[in-house]
Amino acid sequence: MSLRPDIREHAGIYVRGFAMGACDIIPGVSGGTIALVTGIYERLVGAIGSVDPASAKHLLRGDFGSLWADIEKIDLPFLVVLLAGIGTAFLLMSGIILSLLTDHAVATYSFFLGLIIASAVAIFLEIRSRTAATLAFLVVGTGAGYLLGGLGHLDVGHSLPVLFLTGMVALCAMILPGISGAYITLVLNQYEFMLAALRSFSLPEIIAYIAGGVAGLLLFTKALKYLLATYPGAMLALLTGLMLGSARMLWDKGAAAGDMVTGGWVFFLAGLVVVGAVEYAKRRYQVNAT
Q1: 63: burial class by Cβ within 10 Å (0-12, 13-18, 19+)?
Q2: For residue 1, how many other CB atoms are within 10 A of its CB?
Q3: What's the confidence (pLDDT) of residue 178?
Q4: Phi and psi for 155 in degrees, rounded to 5?
Q5: CA-to-CA distance for 181 and 25, rounded, in angstroms?
Q6: pLDDT bracket for residue 218 (50, 70, 90)
Q7: Residue 189: left if φ>0, alpha if ψ -120 to 50, beta else—which one?
Q8: CA 69 → CA 7, 60, 64, 83, 202, distances in Å?
Q9: CA distances (Å), 195 to each of 72, 94, 102, 136, 215, in order?
Q10: Residue whose C-alpha is closest to residue 52's, from 224, 227, 221, 229
Q11: What mean pLDDT do residues 148-152 have?
Q12: Alpha helices, DSSP H only, in 104-190?
C-alpha cells in the first residue's frame, strides 16, 4: 500500500527541512543553498515573501477576517512542515556540536574555519564584473569583519534583548547568498549559549532568538533584496570581506584550545571539501534547471 501523495510530499519537505536545519546550525554552510539544491528554494522564497507584516495589525484589531485572508495567501502547510524538519535538526544537532566544541575544540574550529574560507571564495566567484570599486568593498568588508571578529572577546551577556538582536541579524543572513545564520550567531558570541539553550529546550531564550529573526525578516528582507539586485558586485564583495575578516575569531578560539596548524589542518581541508561539494551540487542543479 502506497502513501497518499500529500503525505509523501510532506515527508519529502520534512526531510529537506531537516537537511537545511542540520546545515544551518553549522557555521559556514547555508541552509538556503540546501533549499536550492533540493528544489524548494523558489517555493520557500515565495512563501516567506507572501507573509504580510500588516497581518499583525489585523490581529491586534481583532479583524480575524482580514487575518484569515492573509493566512490563505501563505503556503502555510509547506512552511509548517519545513520548520518542523529544521527544528528537529536543531534539537538533535545542538548537543552533538556542543560536545565537539567542548571535547575537540581545535578540530571543530578548524573545520568551521575551512567552511567559512571556502564559502567566502564561493561568494566572491559569484561576482561577474570585478572592478576597482569591487576590490575596495572587499577591503572595507575585510577590515570591518576583522573588527567584528574581535567581538568574540567581548562579553555582552546573554540577556533576552541581546538574543533578540542576535536572532534579528542572524536569520536575516539566511537570505544572503552563502551566509549561514549560525556563523553570525558565532561572531556575536552567542553560538555556544544558544546550542545549550536548544539542548535543554530553554523556551525563553529560544523564543527571544526566533522572535528577533522574524522581526528582522519582516523589516529588512526587502531592503537586502533591493541591495543585492541593484548593487550585486559591491554587496557580494562586502560579504566576502566580512567573512574573511571575521574568520579571525575562529582562529583565535581554536588557538586558545591548542595548536591549530598541527592539530587542525586535516579538519580545515575537510571544511573546504564540504563547501566545495555543496557548491558543485548547486551548480549542477542550476545547469540542469536551465
Answers
A1: middle
A2: 3
A3: 66
A4: -95, 100
A5: 8
A6: confident
A7: left
A8: 25, 15, 8, 22, 34
A9: 34, 5, 12, 36, 21
A10: 221
A11: 73
A12: 105-125, 132-149, 160-173, 181-187
Where does the pLDDT of residue 104 fall: very low under 50, low under 70, confident under 90, or very high at 90 and above? very high
Burial class (CB in 10 A: 0-12, 13-18, 19+), 290: exposed
Contacts of 247 (CB under 8 A, 6+ apart): 113, 116, 117, 120, 145, 149
pLDDT digits (tens, 9 = 90+) for 24-69: 888 877 777 777 777 787 788 777 777 766 666 766 777 777 767 7
Distance separating alpha carbons of residues 276 and 286, to the nearest angstrom:
15
Bigger pLDDT: 166 or 182? 166
Most distant CA atoms of the chain, gap in Å? 64
- 21-25, 35-39, 219-223: which is most confident: 21-25
pLDDT band at 189 (very low <50, low <70, confident <90, very high): confident
Q: Which three cell numbers stand for residue 123?
A: 561568494
Cβ proximity of 107 and 263 under 8 Å: yes
Phi then psi for residue 28, to 5 deg, are 115, -15
- Let me know: does 254 contact 106? Beta carbons within 8 Å: yes
Place of cell 526566533: 210
